[in-house]
């Protein structure tokens, strides 16, 4: 059973208590200590056979309980953050050794960074079939300042979505990247007769009548239908992926569709914090002026969403940098996060998205209030500039078994690896295995598959949230609460949305009196479709 400790019930030593709280508000260079990394103490393996290891192997077993799921998620984090093969997108570099995993200052792409950017897939005007190995840009170009992009989720989540940016204590906004793996890319781009980068193609795929398929003798005429807009779940005994029509098909590496959502924060120009971040070189667009500048960015948060048989409603894992935020405390206060011990961590230079010394006089915009969503200047006479630092706290402290699994992984990492500064927050996953395989013509909302943690149905203590991606929605919804409403980008929705406006995601029925066709828990179609 998953344990969620109360705020007054910390079960693990708090490594950050040694860092003076006076530093926690500035998040600037020159505040770290000078401790020397040393050998890790032996940490018990809580994972059994699914224990994360020192390899680039992506796990095929998503796990059968919360501990196993957390262990599988950490191994996926390791595999995806392995240095990418420079000659083969989406694969680990066979020459990269464990000792180099997370080398500080290494800006070369990791496996997930060699995936395809969603905007590039849907923004292309030429067919992309067979182009997975096309050369990726040498420098990231980051312009998203909201994980939700151009979507307005105000009908299904607290505080809505879109136009809600996140600003660090240096006055820099957070930038977001949405990547898809080869399995998902090929499902979208290689369908015969269906252009899934267009609204018309998505509608045609989702509304197919489907087919009955079988691995053995001819299937019964009334067997479950397959086909429609259903992403691949990967090779497995008892399972076949299908195309839009319902024919058996295989895609990419046959590991199941994966979407990676990354949060990047610009780092100090003197590189004084590079030693504790997964870094990249990026061209970032200033949201106020539109001007571009090249900076070093640090990974602040990472969502890993994966569809893997038999967890067909996907598995949703989320990781964060340990410097992001403190935990919320009673009465509007805060407390340092409870972290497993790790002698290879240097003292914290301060929180990235929180100022422990905040005063209303020095914070005229947010008045030191926690987790307040910003309002763009010019709306309702309110002006919250992009450069105003925010006060973000974690509403639900990270508990067990996530902390124990993180402690075990930290004990394996190279002493100077930047990934010593990253932790698993939680994983939401469907406990129910499939009964009838999902078929064509499915409409929102889809099933949540009896998830754990339960999300909104279980109350605030069961919400899974990343403070860099769901900063202002931590009390209302978990991943699956929202993604069951993900739909295709219908032609009528594109026509009804004014240029530059947000696309409204709704629970209500469409003009035909029916709910929209579902897009297999992915908002990529609704957010990225341009035509």
Describe this structure in words.
By secondary structure, this protein is an alpha+beta fold. It has helices at 66-80, 118-123, 182-189, 199-206, 402-412, 479-483, 491-496, 524-528; strands at residues 116-117, 140-142, 151-152, 175-180, 211-212, 225-226, 258-266, 279-285, 292-308, 311-321, 327-329, 333-335, 422-430, 451-452, 503-504. Strands 1, 2, 4, 7, 8, 9, 10, 13 and 14 form a nine-stranded mixed sheet that branches. Helix 1 packs parallel to helix 5 (402-412). The longest helix has 15 residues, at 66-80. The radius of gyration is 22 Å and the shape is globular. The relative contact order is 0.19.
Brief summary:
The protein has 531 residues and is of the alpha+beta class. It is built from 8 helices and 15 strands. Helix 1 packs parallel to helix 5.
Secondary structure tally, helices: 8
For the secondary structure, the number of strands is 15
Quote the distance from N terminus to C terminus: 46 Å
Residue ranges: pLDDT <50 for 5 or more in a row? 1-35, 153-160
Please write the string of helix (H) and strand (E) elements: HEHEEEHHEEEEEEEEHEEHHEH
């Amino acid at each position: 059973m998953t344990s969620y400790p109360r705020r007054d019930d910390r079960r693990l030593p708090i490594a950050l208590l040694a860092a003076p709280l006076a530093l926690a508000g500035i998040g600037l260079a020159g505040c770290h200590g000078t401790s020397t990394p040393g050998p890790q103490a032996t940490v018990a393996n809580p994972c059994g056979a699914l224990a994360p290891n020192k390899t680039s192997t992506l796990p095929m077993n998503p796990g059968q309980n919360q501990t196993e799921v957390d262990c599988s998620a950490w191994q996926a984090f390791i595999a995806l953050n392995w240095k990418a093969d420079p000659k083969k997108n989406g694969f680990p570099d066979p020459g990269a050794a464990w000792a180099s995993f997370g080398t500080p200052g290494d800006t070369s792409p990791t496996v997930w960074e060699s995936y395809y950017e969603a905007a590039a897939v849907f923004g292309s005007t030429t067919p992309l079939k067979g182009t997975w190995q096309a050369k990726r840009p040498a420098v990231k170009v980051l312009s998203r300042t909201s994980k939700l992009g151009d979507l307005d989720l105000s009908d299904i989540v607290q505080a809505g979505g879109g136009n809600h940016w996140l600003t660090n204590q240096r006055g820099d906004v957070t930038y977001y990247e949405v990547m898809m793996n080869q399995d998902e890319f090929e499902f979208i781009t290689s369908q015969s007769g269906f252009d899934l980068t267009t609204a018309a193609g998505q509608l045609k795929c989702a509304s197919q009548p489907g087919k009955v398929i079988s691995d053995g003798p001819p299937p019964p005429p009334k067997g479950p239908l397959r086909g429609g807009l259903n992403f691949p779940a990967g090779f497995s005994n008892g399972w076949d992926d299908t195309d839009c029509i319902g024919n058996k098909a295989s895609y990419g590496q046959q590991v199941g569709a994966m979407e990676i959502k990354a949060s990047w924060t610009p780092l100090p120009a003197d590189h004084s914090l590079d030693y504790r971040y997964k870094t990249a070189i990026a061209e970032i667009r200033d949201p106020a002026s539109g001007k571009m500048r090249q900076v070093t960015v640090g990974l602040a948060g990472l969502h890993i969403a994966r569809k893997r048989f038999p967890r067909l409603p996907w598995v949703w894992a989320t990781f964060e940098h340990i410097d992001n935020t403190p935990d919320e405390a009673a009465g509007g206060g805060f407390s340092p996060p409870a972290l497993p011990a790790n002698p290879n961590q240097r003292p914290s230079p301060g929180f990235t998205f929180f100022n422990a010394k905040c005063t209303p006089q020095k914070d005229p915009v947010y008045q030191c209030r926690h987790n307040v969503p910003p309002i763009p200047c010019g709306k309702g006479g309110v002006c919250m500039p992009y450069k105003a630092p925010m006060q973000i706290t974690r509403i639900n402290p990270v508990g067990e078994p996530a902390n124990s699994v993180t402690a075990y992984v930290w004990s394996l990492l190279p002493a100077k690896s930047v990934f010593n500064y990253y932790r698993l927050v939680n994983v939401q996953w469907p406990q129910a295995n499939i009964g009838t395989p999902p078929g064509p013509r499915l409409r929102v909302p889809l099933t949540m598959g009896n998830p754990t943690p339960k999300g909104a149905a279980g109350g605030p203590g069961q919400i899974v949230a990343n403070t860099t991606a769901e900063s202002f929605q931590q009390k209302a919804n978990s991943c699956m609460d929202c993604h069951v409403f993900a739909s295709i980008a219908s032609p009528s929705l594109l026509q009804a949305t004014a240029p530059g406006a947000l696309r409204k995601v709704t629970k209500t029925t469409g003009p035909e009196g029916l709910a929209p066709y579902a897009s297999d828990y992915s908002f990529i179609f609704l957010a990225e479709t341009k035509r």
